[in-house]
Amino acid sequence: MDDPPPSPSTGHTSNPLDPDRAESASEPTDSSALGFEGTGAALVGSARAIAAGEAVRALAHVARSFVLYDAANERIRAFLEDARIKVEHFLSTHGEMQLEVRPWDIVLGGEVVYTDKDRERSLSFRLYRDGVRRLTLHSDLEWPELVLLIGILSIRYKGVRTQEDDVVTLLWRADFKHIDVGAVEGVIASEDEAVDVPSPVGKAAGGPRDAMQAMIFGAPYAFSYPWPNLTERAMVERRPVPPSLLARITEEEGVESLPEESLQLVRGLLTGLSDPHDPLTFEDVAPVLREIRGFLVGERCFDALLEMARLVQAVSGLDEESHKELLAASVDEEVVRRFMVAVDPTETLAPPALIELMSLTPGDHLATLLDLFTSSARHRSSPVVSQLLESQLRGRAARLVDHLSGANAAVVIELFRLLARADPGGAIDVAVVLLARPEMEAQVEAAKFLSTVEYSGKVGRAMVGALGSTFLEVRTQAMAVLVRRREGRAFETLVDRTRRNATELSMAEAKVTGEALARLDQEKARTVFKEWVRPSGLLGRLSPAQSILRWVAVAGLPLLPGKESEDLLQWLSHHAGDELAQQCGVALAELREQQGKHRA
After folding, report:
1. For residues 469 and 440, what is the distance between their CA atoms, to the nearest angstrom?
2. pLDDT: is 217 or 172 the higher one?
3. I need a surface site. Which of 208, 431, 476, 501 has the fewest CB within 10 A?
4. CA distance linking residue 330 with residue 305, whole number of Å
C-alpha cells in the first residue's frame, strides 16, 4: 500500500489563522485512528511514518539534552550523531520530510509521528506556541543546516529570558536553503473568527462558538489559556486574605511540600524511561535521582526516601544490572546509616520503614551496623541496633570474626552474645577465636558458651586447647566439659600440662586436675598416680614439682577403687609432710566409703 500523499508545503504566511487551518490546529487528529494510542503506547504506522517519528524524536532529544549537558559533553555528540543518522535515513529513503505542527502532535501526511502532552518536554508545543505550522526538510539537506536547526530548537528549550527571539524569527534569520518554514504570528486565535464545528442539538448541549473556544476545548487540562481582553476599568481594591487560605498557600509554597514534589519528579523520570516516543536513558535519570536522594537525606525525609525506593523497585522492563544501578542511585548504604542514627535510642523495636528500606537498599548493612555498634556506646545500648544486628548476623559469623580483631573485650563479648542468640551454630567458630584472645573475660565467655552447646569434635578440640589457657577459670571450665563428655583424648594433654606447670598449680586446681584425670581414664590414671606418689630415682623424689604432683594423685585416688589405691594412700601418709599426710587420711576414708558402697 502506498504511503498517503504529504500535505503541500506553503512556505511563509502572514495570515494569523485562516478558518481552514484553525480547526486542524486546535483539534488534534484522533491518533488511535492512525495507529497511535497516545504517548504511552508503541509507535505503529507506515514505514515512512515510523522513520519520520524516529527522526523527529531524535531531534527533540538532542535539542532537549542541552538543558542537562554542556555543549562539549561527549553525550551531546552521541545525540547529534543519532539525529544525523535518522534524518539522513528518512531523506534518502522517503524523500523530503513535510511536517505539519499541531499543539501536541507533529503529523506527516495524515499520520501522527510525534505526540507529547507535557509542555516542558513537548517539541510540538514549543514550535506551535511560537507560530510554526509547517516544517519541510528537503532531501538535499546539508549537515551544517541540520546542526543550525538543532541549535535553534535547543535555544527554545534552554531559554528563560523574555527578550529572546521566538523560533519563527530565529528560523527566518537562519535563511535556510533546504528547509522551509510555514508560520503564523502566534497561538492565539481571534475571538470573532468563524470555525467549522458541528453545532450540537438543543440548548443544553455546549460546543465551541469560535476558533478561540475550539482551541481551548481541544487543549489538555493543564494548557495555559490566553489572557482575556479586559476592556472595563475598575479601582484596585485590597482585600484581606483569610487565614485558612493564607495557611494553604504557605503550605503549598513552603519546604514541607518539597518531598512530595520530589516524588512527583521521580515518578515523571521513571515514566520517561518507558516512553515509546522519546524515552529517557539511564544516564539521564540516574544523576537526577542522586540529587533528589541527597536533598531528602539532608532534610531527613526518610518516608519520602522509602517511597522513592518503592517506586524504583516497581520499575519494569530493565535488566537486572540496570535495575540494581537505578536502585543504588535512589538509596544507598549512607541513607540507611542516616536512618539508623536518627532512630531514638530508647526505642525498643526497629521502625518497619527502616526494615523495609534495608531490604530494598543494595549494600552491606552488616558493616554499617558493626561500625555503629563498635564506635558508639549510644548505639551499643540501643535495642534497635541490637535487633538489626541479630537479624543481619544469621549465617554470617565469618564476617564477625574479621571484625573482632580490632575491638576491645567489652565490645567483643557483647557482639558475641548477639551472635550466640542469632546463630548458635555459627557462634562456635567465633568462640574458638575468642579462646585465643588475651583477655580473660573473652576466654571465659567463650568457654561458658561451648559448655552449653551440643558436643562435637570441634568443641572437644577447642576445650582441649583451653587446657593451656593462662586463666584458672577457663581451664577449670574446660576440664569440666571434657570430663562430662568422657573425652579420653584429653588425658595425655592434661597430664603433660600438669607435669610442665606443676609448680604453678594451686591446691584447688590440683584437686580438680586429679579428679579430672581419674574420671577421664581410670587405668591410665592409676599408672600416672603411682609414678607421682612413688617416683623412681633420686631426681624424681627431689623435684620441686613432686609435692604438687602428689597432691594431684591424692585428689584422684579416691575415685579409683581397689587395693592398689588404698596401699598408695597408706604408704604416702607415712612418708609425706603433716599436711599431705592428713589429706591422705581424708582420701583413704573417702576411698573406703566408696568401696563399701560398691560392695553393698
Report:
1. 9
2. 172
3. 501
4. 8
Full domain range(s) for residue 579: 501-600
Domain boundary residue among 138, 154, 183? 183
Cβ contacts of residue 425 below 8 Å, gap of 6+?
A: none
Read off the pLDDT of each residue in 36-56 and give the average, rounded to a whole number: 69
The number of CA neighbours under 13 Å toward the Cβ of 5 is: 3
In whole angstroms, give the CA distance from residue 415 to residue 393.
10
For 15-22, what is the mean pLDDT?
A: 35
Res 27: pLDDT: 37
Q: Is the separation of the CB atoms in 430 and 404 below 8 Å?
A: yes
Mean pLDDT score of the chain, rounded to an integer? 81
State the pTM of this model: 0.57
In a 13 Å sphere around the CA of 483, the CA atoms on its Cβ side amount to 18
Tens of pLDDT, residue by residue over 192-249, are 444 444 444 444 445 666 665 665 566 655 555 556 666 667 777 888 888 888 888 7
DSSP for residue 4: P
How does pLDDT run across 414-456, given as a tens digit for each residue?
999 999 999 998 899 999 999 999 999 999 999 999 999 999 9
DSSP-derived secondary structure letter, 489: G
Residue 23 lies in a domain: yes
237, 250, 251, 355 from 240: Cα distances, Å: 10, 15, 18, 48
Q: What are phi and psi of 466, to 5 degrees?
A: -70, -15
Q: How far is CA 32 from the centre of its chain?
A: 41
> Which residues 6+ apart lie within 8 Å of 488 measured at CB?
520, 521
CB of 384 closer than 8 Å to CB of 372: no
Q: Are 104 and 115 in contact (CB under 8 A)?
A: yes
Residue 518 contacts residue 557 (beta carbons within 8 Å)? yes
Q: Is the residue at 36 inside a domain?
A: yes
* C-alpha of 361 from chain center: 2
Give, for 168, the enclosing helix (H) or strand (E).
helix 167-174
Distance (Å, whole) CA 170 – CA 175: 9
Question: What pLDDT is stored for residue 23 in this prediction?
Answer: 35
Q: Is residue 154 part of a domain?
A: yes
143 phi and psi, to 5 degrees? -60, -45
Contact 368, 340 (CB under 8 A): yes
Beta bridge partners of 179: 137
Best mean pLDDT range from 60-69, 82-91, 189-198, 211-220: 82-91
C-alpha cell at 366: 552488616
Average of pLDDT values for 487-508?
A: 92
Phi/psi of residue 324, each to 5°?
-65, -40
Give the separation between CA 598 and CA 561, rounded to whole angstroms: 9
Instruction: From 183, 218, 247, give the residue that closes a domain.
Output: 183
- How confident is the model at residue 498, as a pLDDT? 92
Number of domains present in the structure of the chain: 2
- Report the distance separating Cα 254 and Cα 299, nearest Å: 13
Distance CA 19, CA 195 (A): 6
Distance of alpha carbon 200 from the chain centroid: 57
Position 140 in a domain: yes
What is the C-alpha radius of gyration for the chain, rounded to an integer number of angstroms? 44
Q: How far is CA 122 from CA 57, 118, 157, 338, in A?
A: 10, 6, 10, 39
Residues 6+ apart with CB under 8 A from 512: 476, 479, 555
The pLDDT of 59-81, averaged and rounded, is 82
State the cell numbers at 508.
Answer: 584447688
Average pLDDT value for residue range 291-317: 91
